[in-house]
Design goal:
Strand 1, helix 3 (about 40-60) and strand 2 (about 60-65) form a beta-alpha-beta unit. The protein has two domains: about 30-120 and about 250-315, Bordetella uptake gene, domain 1 (D-Maltodextrin-Binding Protein, domain 2, 3-Layer(aba) Sandwich); about 125-230, D-Maltodextrin-Binding Protein, domain 2 (3-Layer(aba) Sandwich), CATH 3.40.190.10. It is built from twelve helices and eleven strands. The chain is globular and about 65 Å long. About 45% of the residues lie in helices and about 20% in strands.
Length: about 325
C-alpha cells in the first residue's frame, strides 16, 4: 500500500499515470520463469543458464519453475492464465509454439494467448544414417530409397516431434517412402539406430554429436541457413537442393497476452544484452545452441511462420495426432 500511495503521489506531481511509473520501476521483485519440461534436460539447462545471467542484468532473481506434462500444454496454460505484468514468463520452444499446435488440438492459442519477448537461440537438426548403411550423401540416400522402396525405416523422438516432421518433409521432397518408428524420446531411438533396427533419423544436433564423433552414425546434412561450427564439412539441406529446411530446434521467451509494451521493451533489451555475453555462448554450445537475439516483432513473425510451416506439412502428410 505504501508503494502504491507513493506512485499515486508522484504521478500527481509529474502529470504521468501511475501505471506508467509502475512499469518504469519494472522489475521490482522476482520473476517466475516457467520451463515446460522436467528439470535436468537440455531445455532446462538453457533456461537456467540464461536466467542466471538475465537476473544479474535486471538486478532481480529469476525463479525457474519446471512445469512438465502434456508436451508443454500445462506450462502454456499456466503462463497464459498468469497476470500480464511481466512477472511470469515462459520458455517457449519449437514444440509449444510450432509442431504441437500444427499436429494436434491444444487448449491454447500459440499466438493470441501470448506476448513474444524475444528469441534465445536455435540449433539445427541433422539427417543421419547408421554407419552400416553404404550411404555418404543425400543424393546417395535418395538413390537408395528409389532402388529399395520400403526397405528403410527411420526413428523419431515421438509422433509429431520435430524429428518426425523434419523427416516427413524430406520424404515429401524426394517423393519416397520410409517407415516411421516413433519412440518415447531420442535416447531409445538412437539405441535402435545404432543397432541397425532403424536406418535413419533427423535428431537435434546436440543429441547426435556424441554418436557422430564415435562414428556410429554418419551425418548427411543439417537444417538451418548456414553450416554449423561443429560440422563445418556437412552441408545444409538448402545447399544440396532441399528448400524449406531452415527449420531448427529453437527456444524463446513469451509471457501472457497483453504485456505492457514498456515491460516487453525492458525484458527484450536486457535479454539481448545477456545473449551477447561470451560466456553464455560457451555454455549454450553444450546444446549446440547459437544465441539469436530478436526483437519481439521479429520473434512473433518467426513463430507464426514456424506454425504455418508445420501445419501445411501435417495437412499434406495427413498427420493428425488427435485421430491416432
Amino acid at each position: 500500500m505504501k508503494r502504491r500511495n507513493l506512485l499515486a503521489a508522484t504521478a500527481a506531481l509529474s502529470g504521468l499515470p501511475a501505471t506508467l511509473l509502475a512499469q518504469a520501476a519494472f522489475p521490482a521483485r522476482s520473476i517466475r520463469y516457467i520451463v515446460p519440461v522436467a528439470a535436468g534436460g537440455g531445455s532446462d539447462m538453457v533456461g537456467r543458464t540464461v536466467t542466471e545471467r538475465w537476473g544479474k542484468a535486471l538486478n532481480q532473481n529469476f525463479v525457474v519453475d519446471n512445469q512438465a506434462g502434456g508436451g508443454g500444454i500445462i506450462a502454456c496454460q499456466v503462463t497464459a492464465r498468469a497476470p500480464a505484468d511481466g512477472y511470469t514468463l515462459m520458455q517457449g520452444y519449437v514444440a509449444t509454439h510450432g509442431t504441437s499446435p500444427a499436429t494436434r488440438k491444444v487448449p491454447y492459442d500459440p499466438i493470441r494467448d501470448f506476448t513474444p519477448v524475444g528469441m534465445i537461440g536455435a540449433t539445427p537438426n541433422v539427417l543421419v544414417v547408421t554407419s552400416g548403411l553404404p550411404i555418404n550423401s543425400l543424393k546417395e540416400l535418395g538413390d537408395y530409397l528409389r532402388r529399395n522402396p520400403g526397405r528403410l525405416s527411420y526413428g523419431s523422438a515421438g509422433a509429431g516431434s520435430l524429428t518426425h516432421l523434419s523427416m516427413e518433409l524430406y520424404k515429401q521432397q524426394v517423393n519416397s517412402f520410409m517407415v516411421h518408428i516413433p519412440y518415447r524420446g531420442i535416447a531409445p531411438a538412437f539405441t535402435d539406430l545404432i543397432a541397425g533396427q532403424t536406418q535413419a533419423m533427423f535428431p537435434g544436433l546436440a543429441a547426435a554429436m556424441p554418436h557422430i564423433r564415435s562414428g556410429r552414425v554418419r551425418p548427411l546434412a543439417v537444417t538451418g541457413r548456414s553450416r554449423h561450427p561443429l560440422l563445418r564439412d556437412v552441408p545444409t539441406m538448402d545447399e544440396v537442393g532441399f528448400k524449406g529446411f531452415d527449420a531448427e530446434q529453437w527456444y524463446g521467451v513469451v509471457g501472457p497476452a497483453n504485456l505492457p509494451s514498456a515491460v516487453v521493451a525492458t525484458l527484450n533489451q536486457s535479454l539481448e544484452q545477456v545473449l551477447k555475453l561470451p560466456d553464455l555462448r560457451e555454455k549454450l554450445s553444450v546444446e549446440a545452441l547459437e544465441p539469436r537475439p530478436m526483437s519481439p516483432e521479429a520473434f512473433a513473425q518467426y513463430m507464426r511462420a514456424d506454425i504455418a510451416r508445420w501445419t501445411r506439412l501435417a495437412q499434406d502428410r495427413n498427420i493428425n495426432l488427435d485421430a491416432s
